[in-house]
Specification:
Blueprint lengths: L2 E4 L4 E4 L7 E10 L6 H19 L3 E9 L3 H10 L3 H19 L6 E4 L4 H13 L3 E3 L5 E3 L15 H6 L16 E6 L14 E3 L1 H13 L3 E7 L3 H16 L4 E7 L2 E3 L2 E2 L10 H7 L2 H9 L7 E3 L3 H22 L10 H15 L4 H20 L3 H15 L9 H16 L3 H16 L3 H13 L2 E5 L5 E5 L4
Parallel strand pairs: 3-4, 3-10, 4-5, 10-11, 12-14
Antiparallel strand pairs: 1-2, 6-7, 7-8, 8-9, 12-13, 15-16
Helix pairs in contact: 2-3, 4-6, 6-7, 9-10, 10-12, 10-13, 10-14, 11-12, 11-13, 12-13, 15-16
The structure holds zinc ion (ZN).
């Protein structure tokens, strides 16, 4: 049975959706103020995998993720560039969608944009005012009245003092009755983008966007609400306050938070200049290398991206696809065996790992052991079994969105990358290999070594297969 760590109760609990096999899941998406970095990719990969595993386990999942496409940061950025903020956000969202597709993750059931739901947000805010949970100011802003919601602070486990320390006090917002109150609607500044509202021209606050969009597409009660753990306060605390004040019902049954991404042990920050952009990563590595690196971590803990980690995992992914390509070639037309013990074990252990709060770290660690077993089957020429195990790995690890690529093409792509990096052409590698074979056939091993060493310097290795055939390969990594 699936157990998930619920941040709401701080316990690992059996997963029981509100409505049988139907799961309603919302995850906070990206503010389209700049290009996606690895932290955005981490969250998107994690919740895509969670959704996918739930479906693999027999649930019907409706997964909603949003884009915040109007926000102070977007307005500032667009102003710097001298462009329209909506068009700027549009461009960023298109870029991120394309990158996520290249990364090999699926779009959510609904990808909602804040600007498409402004009317719903205004209605939400008005309903909160009507119920006495919010108040407009003479300046055209609307605030949530935190004192009217006694449960406030419970989710993030904060006392009133801590809330104030979190920076809320530093905001200078005239008309605000209490430092803890937060904006539901903000009046538009000079030349700022705005929508008309009962309180004058303005735009929604960030927190109300998620409450409105999740309710619009999923209803008043969610099974899962996800996001990065940096959103627990104030964002998720505020979402709960707004939503539960409006409906009187529990907003989400399970709250799941992913850890944050660190680079060489440090938080990513503009001042350190250590951010890793997803677009840059995708130029260097295929989607499996990136996803596997992210999934080798358990999602709740922070992930530390050390120098060279992608290169090292590229080698592992390359080896798996080489093995798959070899099986495809050797076992063309071979029917897969049935009742394979190893295949049953792979399925069982995968479910065990994932049922334990989506333990992708264990699932990925197990994969390397299975690949060793599969290599042995190929070496023993047990091809029917090998085909079955390969198919099982593709099926099971496909849930993690891994091993879905075409083996021969992936191997070719990685080889081409390293030929290019090393400044070697395929023709050169082929002809040098032929020379090496000639020297060896002539028993001129000294001559053969000269050729081989010269190519090894360029990152190309020569080897012979069991049957005696020779081939060249690339050395992965810098
Ligand atoms: Zn949100």
């Amino acid at each position: 049975m699936l157990k998930v760590y619920n941040v709401l109760t701080r316990n690992k609990e059996p997963f029981v959706p509100l409505d049988g096999k139907n799961v309603k899941m919302y995850a906070c998406g990206i503010t389209a103020s700049g290009s996606a970095h690895i932290g955005h990719a981490y969250q998107a990969v994690i919740f895509d995998v969670i959704r996918n595993y739930l479906e693999y386990s027999g649930y019907n999942v409706t997964y909603v993720r949003n884009y915040t496409d109007v926000d102070d940061k977007i307005i500032i950025k667009a102003r710097e560039l001298g462009v329209n903020p909506i068009e700027y956000a549009e461009k960023i969202m298109a870029e991120i969608d394309a990158q996520f597709e290249q990364l090999g993750i699926c779009p959510p059931t609904v990808c909602s944009r804040a600007t498409e739901c402004i009317g719903d947000m205004i209605a939400f805010v008005q309903a909160l005012i009507d119920k006495g949970y919010a108040y407009p100011t003479e300046y055209g802003d609307v605030y949530f009245k935190v004192d009217a919601f006694p449960e406030y602070g419970k989710f993030s486990n904060r006392t009133a003092g801590e809330e104030l320390l979190s920076g809320v006090r530093n905001e200078t917002e005239p008309g605000k009755l209490n430092d803890r109150d937060f904006a539901l609607w903000k009046h538009a500044g000079d030349d700022e983008i705005f929508w008309d509202s009962p309180w004058g021209p303005g735009r929604p606050g960030w927190h109300i966007e998620c409450s409105t969009m999740s309710m619009k597409f999923l209803g008043e009660e969610l099974d899962i609400h996800g996001g990065g753990k940096d959103l627990i306060f104030p964002h998720h605390e505020n979402e709960i306050a707004q939503s539960e004040a409006l409906t009187g019902k529990q907003f989400a049954k399970y709250w799941l938070h992913n850890g944050l991404v660190k680079v060489n042990g440090q938080k990513m920050s503009k001042s350190l200049g250590n951010g890793i952009l997803l677009g840059d990563l995708l130029k260097d590595f295929n989607g499996d290398v990136i996803k596997m690196t992210l999934l080798m971590n358990s999602y709740r803990s922070d992930i530390n991206i050390m120098d060279g980690i992608f290169d090292s995992n590229e080698g592992k992914i390359y080896d798996i696809y080489k093995l798959f390509a070899k099986i495809d070639k050797l076992a063309e037309g071979v029917e897969p065996a049935t009742g394979c013990e190893l295949s049953a074990k792979i399925r069982r252990e995968f479910t065990e790992a994932m049922d334990n709060d989506f333990n992708t770290a264990l699932a990925v660690a197990n994969l390397f052991g299975y690949v060793n077993e599969l290599t042995k089957l190929v070496n023993k020429n047990m091809l029917a079994e090998a085909v079955d195990v390969k198919n099982t790995l593709k099926e099971v690890y496909g849930v993690l969105r891994l091993l879905n690529m075409d083996p021969a093409e992936t191997v070719r792509g990685t080889k081409e990358k390293y030929l290019r990096l090393n400044g070697v052409t395929k023709e050169e590698a082929d002809s040098r290999l032929a020379e090496w074979v000639e020297f060896r056939n002539a028993k001129d091993f000294a001559g053969a070594d000269v050729v081989r060493n010269a190519m090894a310097e360029k990152g190309i290795v020569f080897a012979t297969e069991r049957g005696g055939g020779s081939y060249w390969d690339v050395k992965i990594g810098k």
